[in-house]
Specification:
alpha/beta, 3 helices
């Protein structure tokens, strides 16, 4: 974390502003009311990963519309790491299996099981 914050070291209680190595966005984010706001830019489209994880196949019209929005987002920003239906899976497993979760790097994702990506 110190490396991601541009520091030599961090101590408990320090506040760190970090630049993540990988950010994983999930399908559900695009379908939830009030949680998705399209950014104007990305800090680095090669470090943003989009995984269809929780709602595949789409169980509702709302989830299907979220997938359409997610696909537009991936296309607009040129995401090379987009795991659409057919390549989808559990986000932290997809990250590990595709070499996106690496030792010493900071990976961010809203899923509570994200820390499991480091176990592979």
């Amino acid at each position: 974390m110190a490396r991601a914050a541009g520091k030599e070291w961090l101590r408990p209680g320090d506040i760190a502003v970090c630049v993540p190595d990988i950010v994983i966005a999930l399908d559900l984010t695009f379908a939830m009311d009030g949680t998705w706001y399209r950014p104007k830019t990305l800090f680095d489209s090669e470090r943003v990963v989009l995984v269809f994880d929780h709602a595949v196949p789409a169980p509702s019209i709302k989830d299907a519309a979220g997938m359409v929005e997610a696909r537009r987002f991936a296309e607009e920003f040129g995401l090379k790491n987009f795991f659409d239906v057919g390549k989808h899976g559990i986000a932290h497993v997809v990250a590990a299996e595709n070499g996106l979760a690496r030792p010493g790097e900071l990976l961010l994702c809203s899923d509570s099981h994200t820390c499991a990506a480091g176990a592979f």
